[in-house]
Design a protein that fits this description.
Number of domains: 1
Largest sheet: 9 strands, mixed
Bound molecules: zinc ion
Radius of gyration: 19 Å
Structural class: alpha/beta
Strand order of the largest sheet: 1-2-3-5-4-6-9-7-8
CATH topology: Aminopeptidase
Strand content: 15-25%
Oligomer: single chain
């Protein structure tokens, strides 16, 4: 089942090869040839790696996430009418993501196409790695933060995917906007990374994660150390609540890192409701990585399940009414964006282990 796609490193390119970001529409991003041998080889002949500048405290990096930019990205993505793969707005969304990401120095961008039932899907990958020679303790297997950008309104009666709107402001322009901000913030902070981070904008999630599954199946085993998925995080009039879905007990330590980051950086998601997922009934892009790939994988989402005391239900979900004005809890959105990035940075800087 698993096609053996050579995981050649795009990351070398990520090392400031090109002013501004570089982009390509082709093969998947991936890990480098074993750095240890190369570092070891050069370490003897090359003076010790220049100590990288002291990394900014993670709390300062989190503060770089700009709510106005989040909002601008969300509104731009919702303005294309629909991001359903059958709708003309989908190509506009792909172009927007490629253009925004390619404009950031130090980010390598790829459009990795796949297909589902003859429908083209475009997974957009942005890879960020430390500049220059590999720093001390560098690990060449990346961590991933992912969010789908495709949208649907299939709960609106009579909805026609190729014609009718599916603005998907909450589902999932909120998550895709967060990833665009991570690209900007992480690129500026990439000297602090001890492993590459891949930001994956998946397509076809509304077809039951067909984009993320196809991408996983194109890679050799264990392509990522961990996966954090952010999906639908802008609506809750009652509480700054998030569900933390973790895929199999293999993801328990990653779940714990998320909980710790919420406390350590005073992010203030409350309640943070942990849910164990052992089947694909939890239809989120982390599912293939956790259930099929056996990779520690979690998802942060406003609610996965029945309404309750801290979640009244989101009736715009998968309808033509999921519009920017329905993103009524921007404080929650910012907290979700920070919690995801805090956990990723704790792990990618080597401060936290799984
Ligand atoms: Zn979604």
């Amino acid at each position: 089942m698993r096609a053996c796609a050579a995981l050649l490193l795009i990351l070398v390119v990520a090392c400031d090869a090109a002013p501004g970001g570089s982009s390509s529409r082709s093969s998947p991003a991936a890990a480098s040839p074993t750095p240890s041998s190369s570092i070891a080889a050069t370490a003897t002949s090359r003076p010790a790696t220049t100590p990288s500048p002291t990394p900014r405290p993670i709390a300062d990096v989190l503060a770089q996430i700009d709510p106005a930019k989040l909002d601008d990205h969300m509104r731009a993505l919702a303005s294309f009418q629909s991001r359903h793969p059958l709708h003309p707005g989908h190509a506009k969304a792909v172009a927007y993501l490629m253009e925004q990401l390619s404009a950031i120095p130090g980010v390598v961008v790829q459009d990795v196409p796949t297909a589902y039932n003859g429908v083209r899907l475009d997974n957009i990958l942005a890879t960020i790695a430390p500049p220059g020679p590999r720093p001390e303790g560098f690990v060449d297997v990346a961590g991933m933060i992912c969010a789908h950008y495709d949208s649907t309104a299939n709960r609106t009666p009579g909805w026609r995917p190729a014609i009718d709107p599916a603005p998907g402001a909450d589902d999932n322009a909120t998550g895709a906007a967060a990833l665009l901000e991570y690209a900007r913030v992480l690129a500026a902070d990439r000297a602090s990374l001890r492993m590459p981070i891949v930001l994956a904008f998946f397509d076809g999630e509304e077809y039951f994660f067909k984009g993320s599954l196809a991408y996983l199946q194109s890679l050799p085993p264990n392509p990522f150390r961990w996966v954090i998925n952010i999906d639908m995080v802008g609506f809750n009039p009652l509480a700054d609540r998030l569900d933390l879905v973790y895929y199999t007990t293999k993801s328990a330590s990653l779940r714990d890192r998320v909980r710790e980051a919420n406390q350590r950086y005073g992010i203030g998601v409350s309640p943070l409701v942990e849910q164990l997922a052992t089947t694909d009934a939890f239809i989120l892009d982390a599912a293939p990585f956790g259930l099929v790939g056996g990779i520690p994988s979690v998802a942060l989402v406003q609610r996965y399940g029945e309404n309750d005391a801290t979640f009244p239900g989101n009736y715009t979900f998968h309808t033509v009414n999921d519009t920017p004005d329905k993103i009524t809890n921007k404080r929650l959105w910012l907290k979700a964006a920070k919690l995801t990035l805090a956990t990723a940075l704790d792990l990618a800087r080597g401060g936290a282990q799984l």
